[in-house]
Amino acid sequence: MIVIQRCRLKPIEKSISRCLYRNISNISTGDKKIENTEDKNNDKKLEKKTDACSTKKPDFNGWDYFLPDRKGDVQVTIIGGSDASIYAAVLLKQSRLIKQIHLVDTKGSLMSAVLDANHIDTSTRIKYFKRRNLKEALKETNIIALMDETNLDTKDLNIISQFEAASMYVHEMAEKMVRFNSNSLVAVFARPVTATLPMVSEVYKHSGWWDPDRIIGSTALDRMRMEAITANLLDLNPAFLSVPMVGGADSNSIVPLLSRASPINGFPIAQQRMLLQSLRNADKKIANNGSEGPSLSDGVAAAKLILMLAGGLSGYENIVSSAYVRSNVLPVCRFFTTELQFGTSGVMKNFGLPKISSSEISLVEQAIPLINECIEMAIKAVKSNRHITMKNT
Q: Are the C-beta atoms of residues 257 and 362 closer than 8 Å to each other?
């Protein structure tokens, strides 16, 4: 049982509020390093320029890369055993941006689905690998997608229980990923991403191959849900609605910035609360209707983020979306979701926190202790697993 100590942020609550209420040019730390004593030697890699005052930014959805004139040479390895893994692979198979897909079946239940998917008449092929063949699957891979080992257990949506169930799997896969292919971009989808992304980052750091710009935590499902829920309310086409996200990477800690939504951002407070509640209750609603989890939407969201990363690797410009990464946007929170621009080396630019409403500032303040709790939980789990590994060796 993992013991969690809640982060006591009371002494710095006032400083957090001041930081959030200031003009955003003062929120972003720009070229300054994060002042965490344990990371001082590594934070040089975080010295990316942050353009928090940037005006309107283009926001591509991943399906732009299905266009027939967009060709690529990107190889993707998907690790996981959930249904979402095969759904994501099938969607990626339809993009000419992707040259080849390797699917590592960690549960041994997806072979027939892969054989079936290869009957789809596109040039991209899906190659099946068992868990023991992970080293072979990671050869010459450009993007590693670490997905859930099993379908989401809708009977227990507690984030701590989710992490306890997934931590050993995520730690084991992360160690093998960094050992067999340390140069690939890593996209983390395994729940809860608020904790599993810091765990993967910590494993890479201990291995000496830490580059925070190449380890990206997905918020694609929550963003896609929010845009769909909001568009349905307004009777709009969800494809033309953009809602930036900040905060953590799970429904309890992520904050949709409806005040920065495009093309419509004038939402009454009651409407904002209703939309946020709908987002946070989405998994429960699916569970109450007898579903095993959001496998379809999860697979679609994963494919969209992977295609954005593949587009950046292929040299396409102006690929912007929200993601959860190692960040220097808020000095009291080492990992944070913001709008990012992806390029040939992963995260090319962090746009930081824009000017947001007072209600959104309050939600961010509430999210920070939850995020920090998940980070500490992940770091403790890595230390514990490393101790067990060293003891066994």
A: no
Q: How far is CA 214 from CA 27, 45, 142, 186, 262, in A?
A: 23, 11, 11, 6, 28
What 3-state DSSP class applies to 217? strand
Task: Determine phi and psi for 169, rounding to 5 degrees.
Answer: -60, -50
Model confidence pLDDT, tens digit, residues 255-276: 999 999 999 999 999 999 999 9
Residue type, 383: K
Q: How far apart are CA 61 and CA 72, in angstroms?
A: 17
Q: Which tokens hold the place of 63?
A: 């399906």
Q: Which residues pair with 105 in a beta bridge?
A: 80, 130
Residue type, 55: T
- Prediction pTM value: 0.85
Q: Is 122 within 8 Å of 164 (Cβ atoms)?
A: no
Helix (H) or strand (E) holding 370: helix 358-392
Nearest in space to 295 (alpha carbons), one of 78, 87, 143, 22: 87
C-alpha to C-alpha distance for 170 and 269, rounded to whole angstroms = 39
Torsion of CA 106, 108, 110, 111, to 10 degrees: 120
Number of Cβ within 10 Å of residue 15's Cβ equals: 12
Task: With both helix axes pointing from N to C terminus, report the angle between 13-21 and 358-392 in degrees, rounded to the nearest 10.
Answer: 120
List, for residues 24-46, the tens digit of each pLDDT value: 434 433 333 333 444 444 444 44
Distance CA 225, CA 280 (A): 10
In the structure encoding, which two tokens stand for residue 50, read together?
């942050």
Q: How far apart are CA 181 and CA 262, in angstroms?
A: 39
What phi and psi, each to the nearest 5 degrees, are found at residue 321?
-160, 170
The dihedral over CA atoms of 220, 225, 228, 232, expressed in degrees to the nearest 10, equals -170
Q: What are the residue ranges of helices labelled H in the chain?
A: 13-21, 24-27, 83-93, 111-117, 134-137, 159-180, 193-207, 220-234, 269-280, 282-288, 295-313, 358-392
